[in-house]
Structures are given as C-alpha cells and as structure tokens.
Specification:
Layout (H helix, E strand, L loop, with lengths): L9 E9 L2 H15 L2 E4 L3 E2 L7 H4 L4 E11 L4 H14 L8 E8 L3 E6 L7 E4 L2 E10 L2 E4 L10 H19 L1
Antiparallel strand pairs: 1-4, 1-5, 2-4, 3-4, 5-6, 6-8, 7-8, 8-9
Length: 174
C-alpha cells in the first residue's frame, strides 16, 4: 500500500490576452487584489500563433504572463478558474469578452492549465472545470505534449516558465 503524501503548494500563473492594453493593467490589478502581489510579470508579447480568437477579440492581440508570490494548493485551481470566468464577464461588453484570463499552476514537474472545455486529455476536477498538463519539466527544460497550444510551445514561453520555476524553487527552499 502506498503512503499518502500531501503535495507541495504550487505557483499560481495566469495568462492574459486582449487587444486593449489598458484592460491588461485593469485585469492584473483585479487579480492582485484577489491573490496578492506578483513576483513576475512578463513583457507584453504579440499573440500571433493563431487567428482563432480574432473573431471574438479582434486583431493585434497582446499577451502577458504573470505569477503570484503566494503559493496555492493545486486543489484550488477550479475555484480560481470560476473566479477568473466571472472577471472575464465583468470586463465584457455587449456579451463579448474583451480579455481572456487563463489560470493555471506551475510545479517542479509541470505546467497545468484550467479549462471549461472537456477533451480526452483533460480531467474534470470540480463544477465543470477541467485541468490539463500542458508542459512537462524534463532535461532542464519545459517540453510540450501533443495537445499543448502552439503559444505555450514557443521558446519565449518556455523561458518565462523556466524563470518562474526558479522563483518557485527558491520559495520551496524557504
């Protein structure tokens, strides 16, 4: 019989994208009020790996990755996704989203994202929220899986997650 171990807390990460730079800042501020101070915010990055979101958001999308100082239990991801969905609705106009807020977490082993969409590689965690392993940490880098979104496979994204992983490892030591 295996011994049950409580997993270490994980690093909350959030991806934001929109074509409205002010909305990036407003959303980041709302998330900081809810989850506490950031310990990382990427530069604003062109989000041009897909045109999937252009109909909803328009062209020239910009993305930002952020992470928070306070670590979270991995089991809380579903609650965070429900909260970020509410925040997306708050910032919507005429029933259309103006910002996409994708929460997830980073552990020493992987990057996990939350989703409302069921698919063969996603596992339901609670109240209609699913999670997927998006990147795995192996051979000192993050590696994609067959379903990893193209924007998470870029060298730029992997460097960001490696930096956040370094911050996280330092937190676990203390």
């Amino acid at each position: 019989m295996g011994r049950v171990l409580i997993p270490a807390p994980v690093k909350l990460i959030v991806s934001l994208f929109t074509n409205n730079p002010e909305l990036l800042e407003d959303t980041e501020n709302a998330l900081v009020r809810k989850f506490g101070p950031l310990d990382f915010a990427s530069n604003v990055i062109d989000f041009n790996q897909t045109t999937y979101y252009e109909k909803e958001f328009g062209p020239a999308l910009k993305r930002k990755f952020i992470s928070f100082q306070r670590l979270i239990p991995s089991s809380s991801l579903w609650k965070i996704k429900i909260m970020t969905n509410r925040l997306e609705r708050k910032f919507s106009r005429n029933g259309n989203r103006r910002i996409n807020i994708d929460p997830g977490y980073l552990s020493q082993a992987n990057v996990v994202l939350a989703s409302t969409k069921m698919f063969f590689h996603r596992i339901h965690i609670n109240k209609g929220i699913h999670q997927e392993v998006t990147l795995i940490y192996q051979d000192k880098t993050f590696k994609p899986l067959p379903w990893t979104y193209p924007d998470y496979q870029t060298e730029q994204a992997k460097k960001i997650f490696l930096h956040i992983r370094t911050l996280y490892a330092a937190q676990l030591k203390h």
